Amino acid sequence: MAVTAPPAQAMREAPPGGATGAPFDMQGGPDAALFLHGLTGSPFEVRFVAERLHARGLRCRGPVMPGHGGDPRALAGLSWEAWVEGALRELASLDGARRTFVVGCSMGALVACALAHAVPAKVDGLALLAPALHLTAVARLAGFLARCTPFGELLPLVPKVGGSDVRDPVMRRENPGLAAVPLSAIAELLELAHRVDMLLPGVVSPALVVAGRRDHTVKLSGARRLARRIGSGPARLVVLERSFHLVGIDVDRERCADEVAGFFQEIPVFHEGG
Questions:
Q1: What is the CATH number of domain 23-265?
Q2: What pLDDT does residue 163 have?
Q3: In degrees, to the nearest 5, what angle opens at C-alpha 98 toward C-alphas 226 and 47?
Q4: Pairing of strands 125-129, 180-182
Q5: Helix, strand or coil for residue 28?
Q6: Chain mean position to CA 122
Q7: 199, 115 contact by CB (below 8 A)
Q8: Would you state the torsion angle of the CA atoms of residues 92, 130, 40, 250, taken in this order, to the nearest 10 degrees?
Q9: Does the predicted model carry a pTM greater than 0.85?
């Protein structure tokens, strides 16, 4: 499918839900979706997609991931298991839905895979946006420094120069993510990526993978590998030609949201009507 440029009005529109990184819980039903943001991010990264799914009748819940929402030093010393455990608690809050989907961005996409592996009966479908399976060389170096050298203690926080990896200037300006990241958190993200890579063949939930061609944070090779290795796959991989990393709020966000909504709509309902 060809990617067409969004109208000028869409490029100038106000950010989804206002410029806020607050958690959200948009009531609806009978189906529900859990939205998980990325490292140093906030629910803002996934709110546009959530609003589109909510307009189609889904309950959409987007929590703040553990260690986020305040001082970036709160991430220091936090393990990747804490992100997964926090997401499991959030998923449990959607018990009773007819179908339950998980939408994850970057780190959140990896956590989504971990959830689907841990509790497959509770995850009817996955939408994995810019999954952080293969990070850039700079990020891998940062993780190495945190794990194997004293730099993790000598340089506990690394500023995020230039803001978030978003092409759309309005969304980049309004995105309220953390301004710095602990080296130890990057090391934990790399460990999570390694663990998820091993788990992928055992993930049986249907999955859609969406990636940005111009991503400067993670490699497209990771999205391709995930789509190829996931147990329910090969998963459909959608590459947005003009988008950077945060595909859910970037210039192709309309298509991203439509792809996710269409994919979830196609997943059969197995437990309706007894």
A1: 3.40.50.1820
A2: 80
A3: 55
A4: unpaired
A5: coil
A6: 18
A7: no
A8: -110
A9: yes
